[in-house]
Amino acid sequence: xxxxxxxxxxxxxxxxxxxxxxxxxxxxxxxxxxxxxxxxxxxxxxxxxxxxxxxxxxxxxxxxxxxxxxxxxxxxxxxxxxxxxxxxxxxxxxxxxxxxxxxxxxxxxxxxxxxxxxxxxxxxxxxxxxxxxxxxxxxxxxxxxxxxxxxxxxxxxxxxx
Length: 161
Known about the structure:
Double Stranded RNA Binding Domain, two-stranded antiparallel ribbon
């Protein structure tokens, strides 16, 4: 009740969803531009996978209409890094674990509250045994990393963490 009174007193109008997302009442649309791939290693389909995952999350977690561009709230982004590297080295100087990581830079614009807009890089990773070939685990690791990245991006934009 106190929070509601303070919010009303400050003139802020925020719409809440059942998922905990806070969205300006005035917002009716959201746009997600197709991610660009600026990583040194370009993986076909990853840009569309990330774009679609963010659109799907926004569609599932908000009641905003999805626009191709010019939404009241908008996302654009680029893949900045896609790599695997040794994580730990065993006694025979061989990698025991590898780390597979993906980084994306996101520019989010809230046209109603510039203070909530951001330009930030998000990085997530998964570790895997060096006895496995990346090509054997890449699809499943990428799927998990994309889920984590999209949750981070959505939470940063709408849950204000």
